[in-house]
Amino acid sequence: xxxxxxxxxxxxxxxxxxxxxxxxxxxxxxxxxxxxxxxxxxxxxxxxxxxxxxxxxxxxxxxxxxxxxxxxxxxxxxxxxxxxxxxxxxxxxxxxxxxxxxxxxxxxxxxxxxxxxxxxxxxxxxxxxxxxxxxxxxxxxxxxxxxxxxxxxxxxxxxxxxxxxxxxxxxxxxxxxxxxxxxxxxxxxxxxxxxxxxxxxxxxxxxxxxxxxxxxxxxxxxxxxxxxxxxxxxxxxxxxxxxxxxxxxxxxxxxxxxxxxxxxxxxxxxxxxxxxxxxxxxxxxxxxxxxxxxxxxxxxxx
Length: 302
Known about the structure:
Blueprint: E1 5-10, H1 15-22, E2 28-34, E3 47-48, H2 55-65, E4 70-73, H3 87-108, E5 111-117, H4 140-155, E6 160-165, E7 168-169, H5 176-184, E8 189-193, E9 197-198, E10 201-202, H6 203-216, E11 220-223, E12 230-231, H7 232-242, E13 249-253, H8 273-279, H9 286-297
Parallel strand pairs: 1-2, 1-4, 2-3, 4-5, 5-6, 6-11, 7-10, 8-13
Antiparallel strand pairs: 9-12
């Protein structure tokens, strides 16, 4: 009888990493790592405290908990606005850590999936972005994530997969639907940007797809997001409606009316045909995924 597959899940105390641990296929030993222990409601982080931006941290992690057959690298610096003033911190997390893990995975013959972002595009397109479309990040977050993509593909060309996703929310962690529900409990009116368009994506949909890519995907880049498109305004309205919130109005505004330190791509819908072909099915339409999330976990989960 063969030994069970051992897979390292980074960012295991976070929104996506915690879901990856919960969705580990039968017969797979998933070991979570994060700089912090598990938060309430998250699965156990068996390997907390390792700094993956340092050679020594990666070596100690592998020595203490390896070897691994695969790595799902969900850890990232995702503070989009703070990245504009913390560029080197973002670079260490989003580019250096993936480089070190890719080198280690290549040396061990392990497969690696890096979770990336729609922010590698500038949002000037008018059709969904394909994997081979030119990238042009608008800010430090997108730039450092793109550098991480290049690093893993360069250092592990035979076994690295990049999966770009967007607008994530899920049962654990901070996210847009949760923020809308919280604000709706405090204010009679919400003002939400209506001229940025993407695809809201549930970790409940994305996580199984990432496991599938790790097991069956050919090396290269994939796009993984729920089907359809929405603005942040659309997502806010749908969240309140589906959660049964009454008596709160939502007013649309432009990006110019709601300035932020980092530019956002105005249009970042992803073409997910490649992933759909690999899996034989698409991620759920975003409205269905949101309704399932709210029905399954309720406002208390956000």
